[in-house]
Amino acid sequence: MATKPNLKVKPGDALRDQAAKLLSSKFGPAKTERREMGKKPDIYFEVSHFGRTVRLYVEAKDYGHALKRSEVAQIFADYSGILDRKKPASLLIVTRNGLSTDADTYVNVEQSDLRHQTILEIEVSSVDLSSYMDFLQREFAESRLDKCYVESDFRIKGDAQSDSEFERTTKGLFDTQKSAYHALKDWVNDDTDYSPVALLGGYGSGKTSLATKLAAELAEASTKSLSVRRPIFIKLGNITRYSAIDGILGGLFTSEVPIQNFNFHDFQILNDKGHFLIILDGFDEMKHSMTWTSFKAQVQSLLKLHKPKSKVLLLGRPSAFLSEDEERHILKGERRFGDDWVSLPHWPRFHELELSDFNAEQRKRFVTGYLALETDDKFTSDMASERASVANKIADSDPKLFGKPVHSKILTDLATDPKFDLSVFSESKSRWVLYKEFIRTLYTRELEKEVRQEISDDERIKFLRDLAFWLWTEKGTSISFSLDELPGKYFSRWEDRTSDDKTGLQRELLSGSILERKQSDVYYFGHRSFAEFLVADRMLANPPAPSDHAVYSQAYTDGVQLFLSEASSKNQTTDWCNTFSPAKGAIHHHYINFLIDQSGSIKNFKSLIDPNSPWSKILEPYSPTLGVSTWNFITVLNAMWGANAVSYAWHFLDIVSEPEGAIDHLCQDVGFSYTNLKQELLVALLNSLFKKAIRKDRYFTIESSDVGLRRLAQRGISTTESENGLVFGFSSLEMAEICMRILSEASLPWMGPTEFVEFKVDYLSTRICGRLEQDLRENLRVFSKHSKSFSAITEVKRKSQFKAKRDRKSRSNSASLKKGGRK
C-alpha cells in the first residue's frame, strides 16, 4: 500500500512567515531556508550596524506552551556552529507563548548571542510608538487634569421608542450607572463588539478632557502590558480641507511627534489585529471649514481606520449636523429614500452616547479641587475653602450655566484672584459676562507686570480679537497657528510705539494671555470657546460694511452664535441690518435669520432692504424666518410666478433641498400633492419667462436683464416634439445645477443644503398652457407651435431710460399723425 505524502504544514511555518513580514519592515527583505553548516535556518537578515553587517538568524517555534530551558538550549546548540562561523551574528527565537522562567534566564543572562521575542512583541515593536505614548502622558500631566479631573455622567442617545438589535447591544455594552470615562474603558477592553462609538456633547462639556485622560491612562498601561490597546489621538480641528487618512497619520508621526520609519501599511496591519484605540476628537471643528460633500468624503477617509477588530471613538458637538439627514448619514450610515432609510454600503453604525453636564455634586468637587490646586501660596486653606464656598454659591444659582466644566473652570480661575470681586455675578450671570470678566481680569494681571505696561489691556484684547477672527475666517476656524503664518499687519500698529524689536513685540503680545504654546513657534487657544467669544466680541465691536457680511456669515458658527445671542442688543446690531441690502458673497441662511431676529421681525428686516436689492425679491415670501415651512410654503411657490431669475433660483433650491419625505408632508399640510408640486415648479418658471418675453408675430425676444430666465428654461427644461405637440421634460437635478450657477454669477451663491430631491417629469405643452396666467397662454401656444428650443427666444439689450422715453414719444407722435390723417 502506497504511503500518502505528508502535506501537513510544519509547526512554526505560519509563525515564521508572520515574523518575517513584520521584521522585514525594520531590517529589509528576509532570506529564507538557506542551509548553513548542515543547519537550515528558518530565516535570517543581514543588518547594517555602525558600518558592519550583522547577521540575525530567526527560528520560529509555534508550540502550545512556553518553551522550556532544555528546548531553548537545544535550539541554540543547533545554531552554535553557524553563529561562531558567521560572527558577528545572533539568534532570535520567536514564539507565541513565551519562555519558562528558567528558559528566560538562559536567554537573557547566560547567552549573549541569543534573543527571544513573542510574535506579539514583534508586532508592537514594528510600529514603535513608545515616544508617542510618553507624549500623551506628558500632555495630560501638563494640563493638570490628572490632579483635578471629575468624571461626568452620560446617557445613551436614541429614540426611546426604538428597540432594534443594535440599540439593545448599545444598552448592554454601556452601563449608564457608571461614569462616561469608566463606561468607555469597559468598551475599550470588551472583545465582543467592534462598532465605533460617537461621544456627543455641547461646547465645554468636557469631551476633549475625557479623551485626553483616557488616552493618557491607556498610554501608561500599554507600557506595562502589550495586550493593552495603544491610543492614537487625532485632533480633527487641524483639518481644514480634505486629507487622506494616511497623510493625516503621516503628519502626526513625522512632524508633531516623530516616529522613526512610520509606515501606514504596517500601522493598518496592527490596527486590524486590535492593537489601537483610535480617538477622533472634534469632528464639528473640522466641518466648519468644509462643504457637506467634502465632510462626508473626509469622514469616509477617517473610517478606513475602522477594521474588524479596531476600536474607534469619535467626539464632537451634535450641532455640527444641520439636519437629521446629515446626522443619520454619518452616525448611522443611512440615507433617506422616500419615507424610508436605506443603509450605506461599507459605512459602520456608531454607538451614540451623549456626555452630561456636571451635576451639583460633581461641579462642587471640581471647583473645590481646582481652587485648591490653583491657590498655592495665595490663600490659607481656610481662605481657599471660603473662596470655593462663594464660587459654589454663585454656581448653584445657575446650574445650567455652570454645569459646563469649562464654565466652572473659568469661575474658579476668577476665584483664584484675591482681587477679583465675585459679586459681579450676583447681578448678571451669562456666558458673555463670564468670558468677558475672565479675559479682562487676565489682562489686568498682566498689566501689573512692569515690563508689560507699554501696551494697554484694551489693545491686547483687540489684538486677540483680530487674531481669533483671522483664524476663523482665514484658517477654517482653527484654534492653532505657527508664528510665521501670522500676518505682520497685526503687529505693525505697535512697532513705532514700543522699544521691543519685532521678535520681542510678538513675544510680548502672545505671552501671558489665553494663548498657550505647544511647540517652539506654535500657539493655540486653551479652549475653543475662548476663540469663539473673541470672534463674537470682535464682530460686535466692528459692525459689518456691505462687503463684510459674507465674512461675518462665515464666522457665524455655532459657538459664536451662542455668544452673539447673549451679548448683542438690538442697538448693537441695527447697523448690521442697515448695510445688508448691497451684501453679496457666500451668506448662510442662519446668518440672515440672526439679522432677522435682531431687527425684531422679518417685516422690520424687509423694511430695511432696498427694493432694488436682489434680497428684496428673495426675502419677500418668507415669514417668520427663512426656510420652507408649512407657514410659508404656498407664499414661496406664489412668489415664483413672475419672479426674476435670481429669486426663482433661490426659491427653487430652497424647496428641492428639503428631503423628499418632508416635501411630501408639506404638500399634505397645505392640501397639495407632490405630483402637483413638480408641475407647479415648471409652470412658475414658464409663466415668469413668458411674462418677460416680448412676442412679435411668432418670434420672441427677451431683454438682457431677464435673460437668466431663458437660461433657466434652456438648461433645466428639455423640449421634444411629438405628434400631440411639444413635450417639456423637467429634471430637478439639472434645474438645481443651473439655479446654483445663476446665483453664483449674481455673487449670491447658494449656501443651503446641496443634496436635492431627484425627479424627472414630462408634460405636454397643451396640458401646461391652461395653468399659465390668462394673458400668457397664447404666447406659449405660439412658442410650442413654431419653436423647438428656448434658445429661439432672442436676447436684446435693454434700452436706456432716455431712449425708451424717446421711442414712446415717437410712437405717440406717429399715432397722432395717423389719427389726424384719418380726419
The number of helical elements comes to 38
Structural class determined from secondary elements:
alpha/beta
- Report the biggest beta sheet as strand number plus sense, adding barrel if it closes: 6 strands, mixed
What is the oligomer described by this structure? single chain
Low-confidence stretches: 1-9
Strand content: 5-15%
- End-to-end CA span: 134 Å
Radius of gyration: 35 Å
Q: How many strand units? A: 22
Question: Into which percent range does the helicity of residues fall?
Answer: 40-55%
Shape label = globular
Mean pLDDT: 86
Main β-sheet, spatial strand arrangement: 6-13-7-10-9-8
Describe, in plain words, how this protein is organized in 3D.
The protein is of the alpha/beta class. The protein is built from 38 helices and 22 strands. The protein has a six-stranded mixed sheet with strand order 6-13-7-10-9-8, with helices on both faces. A hairpin with a 4-residue loop joins β15 (515-517) and β16 (522-525). α15 (360-375) packs antiparallel against α16 (381-396) and α34 (707-716) packs antiparallel against α35. The protein is globular and about 110 Å long.
